[in-house]
Predict the 3D structure of the following.
Amino acid sequence: MSDQFDFLLRQLPNLLWGFPSRRPGGLLLSLLLSAGAISAGLVLAIALAFANHSRNRLVQVLARRVVWAIRGIPLIVLLVLMFQLLGTGTLFGVSFSAFWAAAVTLTLYAAAYQADIVTAGITAVPQQLVSDARLLGASPVTVARTVTLPYCLRTMRPALVTQAITIFKDSSVVVVLGVADLTTNARIALGGDVSNTPFWVATYLLVGFLYWCVAFGIARLVNAHDRPTSSLLGGAHG
Amino acid sequence: MPDWLTGELGLQIAGGVAVTVALTVITSITSFAVGLGAAIGRRSGRAWARRTAATFVEIFRNVPALILLIFFAFAVPNLFPAGLRKTLFFDNRFVDTIETITTLPLPYYALAAVVALTVNTGAHLAEILRAGLDSVPQQRIDAARSLGASARSAYLTITIPDGVRIAFPGVINRLVHNLKNTALVSFVAVPDAFQKIQGTITKTFEATELLIFAALLYLLLATLLEFGLRRIELALWRGRAVDRRLDV
């Protein structure tokens, strides 16, 4: 039993922030990677959602097709495909490292799922609010920026948080590219060493527990924070 | 047809697609059953049932599917010493029977994949189905009760069927997601479509074409699954006097 704890204790720093003398990895990298993908993805998602509501049919169809395609392909396939295209420089002429290929793919993946949420959120904005703002002389862009978007994001916040947690869990799939995230580091820690087989269960229980802590923890924190302000327009600022 | 695509490689990939389809069908059914059970458990009057179901849901919903797959497939057998591990997981009558039926090498990994996908998708479905069961209008249950139905039979004939109907769009979404999650089993030595395609890449080096093919294949499978499930959804509502749009 104690050798189990010894092993876990020895590997814990590697799982949490990566192996010494290498770049940050482990849970820290999982968090950074998913946080980056979620925030960059949200910007893309907002663009896609407005394109989805565009009066230009071509823009609309294009945005819908992109979201549909990304949502229909498993992340593991998307990662390997994108690394093939980006890593060899086929797509942009520069060859991406596995890490950047993973970051780009995860961002697109996050954007597709968030785009559907933001699109629904824009639909949910009361038409009256938008036309009133237009009547008061605001330009369409100003209305989108100051009325539609804040209202939409506030309504859709619970859905976006749930999606963010999903992205974080899904980021474990970057192990196929060997990006040194939590899952990859667990594999490295166990290695091909037969003498490590007794530690597999304990290690993966710990890894599962670390993912669980973040996913469950964020859900709990946000739930607790959301409860007092139930009114949509109650917040002072967007 | 590209010249590197021989009949043998095509058959290999077709076999992989069959594994993916079988895995999707099996885990869709098992995870729906587990999810419905957990949803009923979470709404139960018995505290122990509520607590068990809630623990199940919160554990398996918040751990990545990939970690569950690796845990059940690779970690669990390592709990046992080498000799026992072999007889328990890889070399016994039960596993041999599955091997002859499915022709899968090392069927334990496929079995572990089914378990991992079932608990993961089941935990997600439980939340979706619970919301469905919760939103069955109380008047309808009251109406059944006032016509003399027992609480039990009202639950079985009104709450559960109507709850499933209401929750079905969410169920469809999650089951399509489950189909995409089956691609992860290639990571734990199950010869599904994606693993066979990756195997073909190492033989032919035609990575870009084959990966685009994989993407299109999953898009097609997802579209077909969604179409089939929508059919089931329509069948569930068939013959209902009440317009579903008014209910939801």
In short: The radius of gyration of chain A is 21 Å. DSSP finds ten helices and no strands in chain A. Chain A has one domain: 2-226. Chain A touches chain B through 35 residues (CB under 8 Å).
